Amino acid sequence: MGKNLTKRSEDYSKWYNELVSKADLAENSAVRGCMVIKPYGYAIWEKMQAQLDKMFKETGHENAYFPLFIPKSYLSKEAAHVDGFAKECAVVTHYRLKNAEDGSGVIVDPEAKLEEELIVRPTSETIIWSMFKKWITSYRDLPLMINQWANVVRWEMRTRLFLRTSEFLWQEGHTAHATKEEAMKETLQIVEIYKSLFEDHLAIPTVIGRKSDAEKFAGAEETYSIETMMLDKKALQGGTSHYLGTNFGDAFDVKFQNKENKQQPVFATSWGVSTRVIGALIMVHGDNKGLKIPPKVAPHQVIIVPINPKNENEKEFNNFVDIVANDLNKNGIRYKIDTSENTPGFKFNFWELRGVPIRLEIGLQEYKDQKLTLCRRDTGEKTSIKHNDSSVITKMLDDIQLNMYNSADAFLKKNTIELNNYKDLKEKLSKDNCFVKAYWDGSAASELKVKEDTKATIRCILEDVDNKKLKCIVSKKPAKHIVIFAKAY
Amino acid sequence: MGKNLTKRSEDYSKWYNELVSKADLAENSAVRGCMVIKPYGYAIWEKMQAQLDKMFKETGHENAYFPLFIPKSYLSKEAAHVDGFAKECAVVTHYRLKNAEDGSGVIVDPEAKLEEELIVRPTSETIIWSMFKKWITSYRDLPLMINQWANVVRWEMRTRLFLRTSEFLWQEGHTAHATKEEAMKETLQIVEIYKSLFEDHLAIPTVIGRKSDAEKFAGAEETYSIETMMLDKKALQGGTSHYLGTNFGDAFDVKFQNKENKQQPVFATSWGVSTRVIGALIMVHGDNKGLKIPPKVAPHQVIIVPINPKNENEKEFNNFVDIVANDLNKNGIRYKIDTSENTPGFKFNFWELRGVPIRLEIGLQEYKDQKLTLCRRDTGEKTSIKHNDSSVITKMLDDIQLNMYNSADAFLKKNTIELNNYKDLKEKLSKDNCFVKAYWDGSAASELKVKEDTKATIRCILEDVDNKKLKCIVSKKPAKHIVIFAKAY
Questions:
Q1: What is the ipTM score, two decimals?
Q2: Are residues A227 and A179 in the same domain?
Q3: Is A75 within 8 Å of B46 when comparing Cβ atoms?
Q4: What is the pLDDT of residues A91-130, one digit of tens each?
Q5: Are B131 and A34 in contact (CB < 8 Å)?
Q6: Would residue B361 count as lying in a domain?
Q7: Kind of pairing, strands B302-306 and B267-274?
Q8: Strands B255-257 and B235-245, how do they pair?
Q9: How far is A421 from chain B (nearest CA, A)?
Q10: Which of the listed residues A372, A406, A440 is the one where a domain comes to its end?
Q11: Inter-CA distances, B287 with A6, A156, B228, B378, B403, Å
Q12: Are residues B256 and B211 in the same domain?
């Protein structure tokens, strides 16, 4: 329970690992780097999925499903893409097992070797554009706006539950457009959708900008990134939206005939958000008692704890609990009643650890007074309300959602500093984490120097500048951009 | 369009393949045996998913996610299971690619060989029970009722879109119980849920029973099967629910401590329904014009076709169309307006091919009379209704749903015959497909003889009999069961 949880301030990393495990969100499997998402963790993912899926559909996207396997040769078709993804792939080489002749067990049948090896998708641009080639011939076929909910595999050497796992769940959007402008508009529309997921639903403030060339997606012209700040002041990239230009269209020879019967290139975007977001949710809101889940994505928004150890007036008391539950149900509030044999204290810790936004206590006093005691997970405040007034609870859930966002936003603002002097930057980042806002000359050399000296990278380019008086914090040469430097997950 | 569709009676198999392709449900990919589920096909799958998921949750199941990969040694832990699944697996042997030294492209890095090969899950009993071992220690941990939505891979030599593909999507349920009785109750509860999916939502009547030993799941004690009849009178197994006894619990050494502190074995079930169901939907309801989708799972329940070729009174006309659409929306009817540049005739064929239950035509006459013309996909009947009376449409959708079920049910009943004479069975099945209800002695020999003589298998055991006068249709020995023989997909 919460009591046995390592303090967040003591060892952030240990606190995170323990919390994921104790709150029953996920655990490691026997397959190195592959996690099991447990029911409580998966329920949070389902809530996020539902929100994203709704927003995708409202903006004209359709879901589809493409093969898990990608022929090895496909990965090579886009030059930058293969360099970025070929290193860390699970490779299928055979399609059959058989019993060993010496009776020692099951072995791979050497006769069932594939002519061409198959890669378990690390991302699906190549297989999807091989299909888009068939689907796109005329301007009438555009725009084509597809999303896929899927598992992907990137063989990782060092893994952490949710944050970096060899297999993870995500959505990947892939769209095709007749013009650059339209594709760029789509890239930015998705950024807005992701921003809404983070800010409006997960109560996580965002910093949004373009990636530097060193950090952008392998095969993209531009990558926009949703950056978030964890409570250890490190950055976590929550989602990315890529403008791919005609790179994949060209690689797979996709052209469309415009209204004037001319063959034209096709412009692409791709974008994704993964189960990694659950890691962000934990690390932005959690405390020494455990998770805090924002009401909008909480599997249970209210946990009802009936307290009647001696079962006094059992029937009437239970009836009262049911009336309260029905009232919540009628008002669309997701609740659960904890009727287990555990003590009230155990239950309080248990559900605090799991981050349920409101605990609703019903003891004999509450029953007699026809009142309810509410306890907020975000502030710990207790309130007494009339038993049949669940509009108060709805309002409190809204307030918790807002309060959680405001706390996280204040933290982000407090820990984002502007610096102009390289010595200050080095000193600051050697002592503590933070987001450093600074001028950059746009050179790979300056970017690399910061990384080598401080381990911080350019999280995103906030804006471009065109003023010769502004100097790069590293090189003192004229600055081209304002960027955020930070250490990242 | 429908006009180019091969007639169902002419070549059923060709009709099916063309329909899947022309109605934009799915197509083959470059990866042998792996399909692409296109947006329209996927939208049908999402509707089925939503229904099943709701029913699973209402009966206390929780979703979770387990790794895609299974260590090779896990498959061997349950003896019958490995025999059933080891033959047709995708095997991951390496985890990295690299550039070939001769510049010829990307090759598998021989140094990145896995110590133990990983199998892409053909089904997840083994990996899930390896986790259940950690999760189950006490009677308090039971029952454990988990469902997973996932992709699985079974390397198939001959594949057909939806019906048999190397990769497919499915849900797989895995539950653990303290007693045999409880596990068996769960097995049968799931049968009822599947029956409801098929009958109430897909308008497909079912025949339900146990599988013979030859046909049951590798590792199961009992397999219950949902059998359905296609329009070519062949059977398609729509879903299965397995009682696994303690086979997997024993194989993974899972025990629980009961209230008396005694170590007890754990009883299991598993059950699944896959994208194959979409194949059934096509083959039970489709006709020479294309698909017929039951309203409850139709992505669009109503297609609105505005017909105003010369754009007369354009603004007022379009306004009228919007009013009609808003009325449908308010009544929770899923609709789409076809505003493409195609001719009305093209649109009629296009949406008939895609099986939309109701076409709503709005021409200038309808606009003037403030009326709507409805055309039912199931019967072709046309009706004229008042423009603001969408309750008529809701009622018509219910009626279509029922009518489609009744037609399929009449067809199943008509083509299910009872036989007592082996010569009749052979003759009947040599001329035509059908479901033959007959007595069986329970022997593998009799079962095999039917299969060799007619290609029909025992689809399921309907009931057991205990009357020495009743004789097996094959051996004339005393019968033990009433079964259904049929050729199957």
A1: 0.96
A2: yes
A3: no
A4: 999 999 998 888 778 899 999 999 999 999 999 999 999 9
A5: no
A6: yes
A7: unpaired
A8: unpaired
A9: 42
A10: A406
A11: 65, 50, 17, 10, 15
A12: yes
